[in-house]
Specification:
The protein is an all-beta fold. The chain contains no helices and 10 strands.
C-alpha cells in the first residue's frame, strides 16, 4: 500500500504586522540565501533562510508574486510557512 502525495499544500506568509497570505497552492518559488527553490506538494521537510527576491505561488492558472527580503521558510509535505520582515507586491 502506498501513500499518495498531497495535491496541494497550505501556504502562509507571515510578517511582524499580519498574516499576509493563507491559501492553498500547487507550487511556490522561494528565494533563499542559497538560491531560488521550487516547492511542490509532498516536499521533504526543510528549513531555509530567505534571501532577497521574488516569492511566487501558483494555484492552477492563477499566480501571485511578492518581493521579500530576509526571514525564513518552514517547508513540509503539506504546508509551507514563510516568516519575513519585508514584503512588497510584485509586478
Amino acid at each position: 500500500m502506498s501513500i499518495a502525495a498531497p495535491v496541494r499544500f497550505r501556504l502562509r506568509v507571515v510578517t511582524p504586522k499580519s498574516l499576509l497570505i493563507e491559501t492553498e497552492a500547487d507550487e511556490a518559488q522561494i528565494p533563499t540565501t542559497e538560491g531560488l527553490i521550487g516547492v511542490f506538494p509532498g516536499h521533504r521537510p526543510l528549513v531555509a533562510a530567505l534571501g532577497r527576491g521574488t516569492l511566487s505561488y501558483r494555484q492552477a492558472k492563477y499566480e501571485e508574486q511578492f518581493e521579500v527580503e530576509g526571514g525564513y521558510a518552514e517547508i513540509g509535505p503539506d504546508e509551507v510557512l514563510i516568516f519575513t520582515e519585508t514584503v512588497a507586491a510584485g509586478d
